[in-house]
TrEMBL record:
Residues annotated to bind ATP: G8, M9, S10, G11, S12, G13, K14, S15
Residue ranges occupied by any RapZ-like N-terminal domain in the UniProt entry: 1-156
Domain of life, source organism: Bacteria
Domain RapZ C-terminal per the UniProt entry, residue ranges: 163-284
Any GO molecular function: GTP binding
Annotated TM spans: none
Source lineage: Bacteria, Bacillati, Bacillota, Clostridia, Lachnospirales
Residues at which GTP binds: D59, I60, R61, S62
InterPro entries associated with the record: P-loop_NTPase (IPR027417), RapZ-like (IPR005337), RapZ-like_N (IPR053930), RapZ_C (IPR053931)
Stated name of the protein: Uncharacterized protein
Keywords annotated in UniProt: ATP-binding, GTP-binding, Nucleotide-binding
Coiled-coil positions: none
Length: 291
């Protein structure tokens, strides 16, 4: 029997994740009282078919018994019953936004502000996050991207390192992304904006890609950037980080930055030790302004 404990921050996507687990063939039980957890594992081990996958959800609703989870997991390990822990997380700003959009109350906020409830929950779940075998930060993930990450962990059985890399193109005139970890400036490359026939197109179009990559410096930069970003990702994984936002900017975020972001994505996506996604933040802003 393969037993998975699904837990994490309220608002991080656990309900959606449970639906994906059911689609993957897991027998799912959500919000199981922690005092019943070991008995449930013992019973399912005896009565479930061999090879059955079982997922149990535990979250802050079990707050009064969370301190017991460490002893229970250790006891199950001693009994030879391995429990994998999948922890879903998101940054505080994202959680606040999600709660405001849904107009739901945080289970621990009571009459206090949402931020107080989120902070209290982080403290209560700190052991489970530390104990987790897999951590998925859903702050920047679309629903389909969460599904892809879960399949990579649980179906493809990849050597998962709990790292999600976001490659983000942007325009400096619209501001540097607030969540940037690494920022690279490609305004030194020739600008297709000054070629009238190319101006309406974007870095997703072959004509722009050819124009930008026809510059020898673009290839030198891309080679050096790939080596450095790959080096940093490998070492961030060792450090235990689970998210990295790499931003590539040009003036308007429409031509050069998109081209280089796409090129870097194509090079890094072959590595299976981390998840990777790309996003073009400002691709339509000039168009909206009639430029």
């Amino acid at each position: 029997m393969h037993l998975l404990l699904l837990t994490g921050m309220s608002g991080s996507g656990k309900s959606t994740a449970f639906k994906f687990l059911e689609d993957m063939g897991y027998y799912c039980v959500d919000n199981l009282p922690i005092p019943l957890f070991k008995s449930f594992v013992d019973l399912t081990a005896k009565n479930m078919p061999k090879g059955q996958k079982v997922a149990v959800g535990i979250d802050i609703r079990s707050e009064g018994h969370l301190e017991r989870i460490a002893d229970i997991l250790n006891e199950l390990d001693r009994d030879g019953k391995k429990v994998d822990v999948l922890f879903l997380d998101a940054d505080d700003e994202t959680l606040l936004k999600r709660y405001k959009e849904t107009r739901r109350n945080h289970p621990l906020s009571g009459s206090e502000r949402l931020s107080a409830g989120i902070a209290r929950e982080r403290g209560a779940l700190s052991y489970l996050r530390y104990r987790a075998d897999y951590i998925i930060d859903t702050s920047h993930l679309l629903t389909r991207e969460l599904k892809t990450e879960m399949e990579r962990i649980l179906v493809e059985d990849s050597d998962y390192k709990s790292m999600m890399v976001t490659l983000l193109s942007f325009g400096f005139k619209y501001g540097i992304p607030k969540d940037a970890d690494l920022v690279f400036d490609v305004r030194f490359l020739p600008n297709p904006y000054y070629v009238v026939s190319l101006r309406p197109k974007t870095g997703n179009d072959p004509e722009i890609q050819e124009y930008v990559m026809n510059c020898p410096e673009a290839h030198v930069f891309l080679d050096k950037l790939t080596d450095m970003v790959q080096f940093l990702i490998d070492n961030y994984i060792k450090e235990g980080r689970n998210q990295l936002v790499v931003c590539i900017g040009c003036t308007g975020g429409k031509h050069r930055s998109i081209t280089l972001t796409n090129q870097l994505y194509d090079r890094l996506k072959k590595n299976k030790n981390y998840g990777i996604r790309k996003e073009h933040r400002d691709i339509d802003k000039d168009r909206a302004r009639g430029k």
